[in-house]
Amino acid sequence: MHEFDVGARLRELRKSFGMSQRHLAESAGVPHGQISMIETNRSSPSVSSLRKILGGMGIGMSEFFEPDAQDSGQVFFTPGELRDLTSRIYSGAGQAQGRITLKQVGDARSHNLQILHETYDPGADTGETMLEHLASEGGIVISGEIELTVGKCRTILKAGDSYLFNSQEPHRFRNISDRPATVISACTPPYL
């Protein structure tokens, strides 16, 4: 599999929407320079930053990474058939924070339900910019520990613990432990 070019894909989409870098930055609420840095591959965006930028064009991560994906009507999925939504964002080299991998079950948009298998390496963080989106989400920690902040509430969830909240509340996921954490989550409507 060839390496996914985040910068080229963002530039292609921005131009297809007839937007300048400045217009996209204003629409997404990010600094103009951030768009330029990503498009020239001088910066790798965090999950929250990329999602925010894509929101400025009204698209999600799945559409960004797999624009031609069609719902095949598939009902059952092996681990190798899950859609990798974010591992291509982080090359692993030179990243200050740990890697986050989000794998989606099937076509979330056609079912209006996103089910994710999430893995957070030690130090992984969805970013200082808190996530906010129109949805409800919940999940169960399968292994390890994850720090979850929702609004002004913060806790450390361990294997077997779960969560459920309105995603319009600012939220952030971080693995502050020294071992990987695995979470199975669901979100409706789909966020990524």
TrEMBL record:
GO terms for cellular component: cytosol. One of its GO terms (molecular function) is DNA-binding transcription factor activity. Residues 10-64 form the HTH cro/C1-type domain. The keyword DNA-binding applies. Transmembrane segments: none annotated. Keywords: DNA-binding. The keyword DNA-binding applies. It comes from the Bacteria. Gene3D superfamilies: Jelly Rolls, lambda repressor-like DNA-binding domains. PANTHER family: HTH-TYPE TRANSCRIPTIONAL REGULATOR (PTHR46797), HTH-TYPE TRANSCRIPTIONAL REGULATOR PUUR (PTHR46797:SF11). This is XRE family transcriptional regulator.
